Amino acid sequence: MGVLAAVAALAALLTACSGGGGDGPVVVPPSPDPTTPAVASAPPALAPVGEPETLATGLDAPWSILRLPDGGVLVSERDTGRIVEVLADGSLREAAVVPGVVPGGEGGLLGLAHLAGDGSAAPSVAAYLSTADDNRIVRMPLTGAPGELGLGEAEVVLDGIPRGGRHNGGRLAVGPDGYLYATTGDTGDGGLAQDPGSLGGKILRMTRDGEPAPGNPFGTLVWSLGHRNPQGLAWDAAGGMWATEFGQNTWDELNRIEPGANYGWPVVEGRADDDRFHDPAVQWPTSEASPSGLAVVGDTLVLAALRGERLWFASPALTSPTDVADALAGELGRLRDVVPGPDDDLWVVTNNTDGRGLPRDGDDRLVRIRLGPAG
């Protein structure tokens, strides 16, 4: 039996054992013809080791962690509209207040991404924010060195993204191709997700100036559609793209993202076995996940869960996950974002001060998770 066939058979067995509506994650068999290339040697699967270490405390409804190439660390605060710098000693300093942020419900200052300089443009930080009328993406020149980082005047990259009291998406990430990706939510109007002319309920791909990136499947900003509220983006070692998505009442999702693919919302939630839509690679009961941030470390996908109050580890990423396990359940509360750290570790930000959690002493906090080989 070939490797891919063996993986598919194992995944099918795990799915059958998990059941369609019981507790715990359900693994969906991978496609027998993956569209991303194999790599010569798969990186290892990783898992947490030791106890979490607090790096910083006193964050106010943090949303996105941005580790910069020079070692600087920025964190967005949803309701204050601030971008704060986390200093080496764990203290916080205000790097900028993003103009025009109007918090409310699930809106406010959300995702951050670093845009490298290209000779004609200086390095900058892109931010996804909610205004009174829309969601939009701005970019701000990055100034200073770690310890004294600052951000210049904000320039609009893209506006007119639908805004609602909930389901605003908000994650920004620069892909291996150098283009800027953004997740957008359906704002509670599921019809937007299936409307190819709407920016709501989509994953978008664009240039640093907000134009459709070359090669986009419809010639527009839309990269994929049929999303309810995606909030995590990451790429595996072969360049395969992954996203997390909040379900409604039944299934949260981890999806492998293909250009032009339709992920089904609001026609379906979770696995549908419908040729019109792409099924998730893994799905969870909403009580156990509500996934926001997503990171790839080694050959493992790591999801930060809000309602589930844990990290989910799913591997292997290069084919499709068949080994899914959680960690830190209930130890830190709601977890909003997760990123690879500088020393083969993970950095996680809690989200207990966002109005839906139970704040603990020092919340919210930035935490380091050490990693080692899984199994």
How would you characterize the overall build of this protein?
The chain is mostly beta strands. The chain is built from two helices and 27 strands. The strands form six sheets. A five-stranded antiparallel sheet has the order 1-20-19-18-17. Strands 2, 3, 25, 26 and 27 form a five-stranded antiparallel sheet that branches. The longest helix has 16 residues, at 3-18. The radius of gyration is 19 Å and the shape is globular. The protein starts with a helix and ends with a strand. Residues 1-21 have low confidence and may be disordered.
Mean pLDDT: 92
Task: Tell me the total number of β-strands.
Answer: 27
What integer value in Å does the Rg equal?
A: 19 Å
- Quickly count the helices: 2
Report the β-strand fraction as a percent range.
35-45%
Distance between the termini: 24 Å
Q: In percent, how helical is the residue content?
A: under 10%
Structural class computed from helices and strand pairing:
mainly beta
Low-confidence stretches: 1-21
Tell me the overall shape. Answer: globular
Walk across the major sheet and give the strand order.
1-20-19-18-17
Give the biggest beta sheet. 5 strands, antiparallel
Order of helical and strand elements: HEEEEEEEEEEEEEEHEEEEEEEEEEEEE
